[in-house]
Amino acid sequence: MLDENKRWFPEARYGLFIHWGPYAQYGRGEQVLFREHLDQADYEARARSWNPEFFDAKAWAKVAADGGFKYAVLTTRHHDSYALWDTKYSNYNSMQCAPKCDLVREYVEAFREAGLRVGLYYSWADWTSKAYWSNPDDDLDAWNKLRDMTHNQVEELLTNYGKIDVFWFDGTWPHPAARWDSSGLVKRMRELQPDILINNRLDAESPFTAAQGAVEFAGESKTMGDFGTPEHHITADNDRIWESCQTSTWRLWGYARGEHWRPAGLMLDYLCQASSQGGNLLLNVGPQPDGRIPAEFIDRSAKIGEWLKVHGEAIYGTTRGDITEFTTKGWQTLRGNSLYLIYRFWHGEECERIAELATPAKAATLLSTGQSLKVENRDDAIYIKGMPRVKPSSLFPVIRLDFGEPPKAKEWAKGRLWNLDPRLMQPWVNEIKSD
Ligand code: H79
Question: What residue ranges define each of the domains in the chain, with the CATH number in brackets?
Answer without folding.
Answer: 4-314 (3.20.20.80), 321-414 (2.60.40.1180)
